[in-house]
Amino acid sequence: MIMEFMCNEQGVTALNNLSNRLQEQVTSIKQSTNALQSDLDSNKNGLGPHVDSIQRVIDEMNEEVNQASSPVTELAEKATALAKSYQEFIDTDRF
Description:
Number of helices: 3
Shape: rod-shaped
Helix content: over 70%
CATH topology: Helix Hairpins
């Protein structure tokens, strides 16, 4: 059923857009956590005893981001593969 509905140019575009948005979000989140780390590194001297607790929070965030990004990346890859499969089917011009 889904193949019949989505196996068209709009479906291919939608799947590719979904894949791109997912990948962009993963990249954005990773860049944000990297920016936090850079900010901490740049301001360690002014944060006093709070440096260690802030570092622990950033480390936990990085760990969570890495764990969460793997399934999101897999989903993006599946969407891309499905879009490619649909496009190949469309290109065979069986209609």
